[in-house]
Amino acid sequence: MKLVPSLLAAQHSFTQMKKQLAPLVKRGLISAVHVDVMDGEFVENYTLDWLNAELVTKLRKAFPKLFIEVHLMVHFPSEYFNEFAKAGANRIWVHVESIDNEKNLNVGLKKHKKVEFGPALNPETRISKLKGNLRSALIMSVHPGKGGQKLIPATLTKVKQLRKRFPLMTISIDGGVDVKNLSRIEKAGASEAVCGTAVFKGDPLLNLLLFAKRTETAIARYEQGQFTEMPKTAFLDKLKKW
Length: 242
Prior knowledge:
Blueprint: E1 2-5, H1 14-26, E2 32-38, H2 53-62, E3 67-73, H3 78-87, E4 91-95, H4 101-111, E5 116-121, E6 136-140, H5 154-165, E7 170-174, H6 182-188, E8 192-195, H7 197-200, H8 204-211, H9 215-223, H10 232-241
Parallel strand pairs: 1-8, 2-3, 3-4, 4-5, 5-6, 6-7, 7-8
């Protein structure tokens, strides 16, 4: 399963964010990032002051090979297509619950052929809303708008149904992902998992090593002084929990 870190939980300063991402990209622990764009209307939270096209441009310049997906939690998605496509986004998620969503999705597909467009569904939205021959879909496993929520178990049933209906589709799940439920998510049929807090809370490098079950590497790096800010008892306790 592919893990896609959500930058909503990363440092807001690009300089600090870049420092967080660089070792993860260098060690091959991540190959993609997720940019949550919120307009303060479709969802209560507002992120356009920092999770925006300018950030995508900076990410593309700093990490040329990084796959960048943009999650538009906005009422009028098509208003943002041009700027994010030009900035270097590889994939744009469009909510089916947004105003005039089907028309907007078709506009994006026709105009920006180098960008992958896919539908995103809120937890309560039925998969019957999805139409056509789709390459990918994003299933929200929490209510959109803020990080740190717990995964809604019923959304895994939706993933199973979608996998049965579209055997070759890229199915991404977003929200409440952690090491304890990752195997259930994968078993349900998801091919990608967006996770923010579970990656960026604490030490991202350590968290991703543990996600990848590379505990021996994590221990070796601790002994080399990699995670010196963490007392040994706390480090060992974290290993047990993961």
